[in-house]
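MFS transporter
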Amino acid sequence: MYYHADDSAEEKGYPEAEMNKHERWIVFLMGSSHTMVHFYEQIFPALLLTMVAYFHIELATAGWMQTLLALAFGWGALPAGYIADRIGTKRIVMVYLIGAALSCIYISTARSAAALAVGLATMGAFISLYHPSGTTLVTTQVKAVGKALGYHGIGGGLGVAVAPLLATLLAALFPKYGWRLSFFAFGVLGLLVASGVATLKVSEVRLENSRKRFWPEHLAKGSLKPLIMFFAVAVMVGFCYRGVMTYLPTYFSQRLNGGVFSGYEVLKGGTFATMTLLVGVVGQFVGGHLTSRYNLEKLFAVLMIVTVPLLVLMSFSSNFGLLFITMAFAFFHFSAQPVGNTLIAEYTDPRGRGLGYGLYFSISFGVGSLASGFSGVVADRFGLDKVFSVLGFFIFLGFLIMVYLARTRSPERMGQLDDGAQGML
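Tokens:
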């Protein structure tokens, strides 16, 4: 049996706050799968300094390699949901886990920059399968949808935060194998998660009419204008996210020096990047609570503009000043994520909400992926410190669009979110 996300718990006769043993197992495995997505996404940036030296490439070249992964990761999300609807979500999750794990193990054997680039692009294509299929599996198999997706989101946040430390720690503890061991270990871990997912018994959703399609008029709730404008904002936010995530560990390894910051450069960068990004997990929790208390457009705009001076200050800071400023940036930047997800739910028609989320993630991650290569060019020509100020400029552009959207949109809300949207968020 499966449960539609747009069916309320009360209508089904289930207590929203409770999950049975099978549902908890589903949430744990999907949360673990979500963690692995961001492990795979972050492992190369965490080991960037070591791998640039090993393969004798420039930062810009490494940035474009990460762009290959991020492009595949972003644009693959759109067709992934369409395919999952037709062959089953569990199958797609399994393909993602096995394919990404084998790609990671392949990278651990790479002897040339070309082989590395191919491995990263392939891994990006496989991890792109997860978000639409994994989220759909959770929302159709678990009664307490909202609670389940909350834990699922935390799994992803922990993946983003822990990956830099875990990857660099493995490389530092076993210098004989270095970065190769990190990639190999992440690959093996992915296969272990896949073995767990293989045990799941799920009842897949069957489409009433497999030929039915969502037409454009079913995408937006009301006018398309707010949705299109917010997609433009998503490009700016995604661009900043990708640029910061790609170069933060390397930047920390260069700018945190002396005292408690002494030690192996790569491990230092990964350790303090993890500390910083864990603050972002707290920000996600806080942002989720703020969505029900304030005007969403204004709230999103405020969370954006606060990060602009923080990004600029990151370009001029070092040691504890840099660490605390980056933590503040992570808190506000990640606080905006649940607000953005809520806005997509408000702007889209329930019949096309899945398509709306697919477009949102594809645009944000896909176009944003160009930031890795672009920021690498900035770093090579002007210095790595200038990258963060440039990224702050893009956030400022997004803020201006958000302010215009907040002022032009009708003060009257576009209707209360349906129960399904509340659960999805």
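The domain at 9-424 is CATH 1.20.1250.20 (Growth Hormone; Chain: A;).
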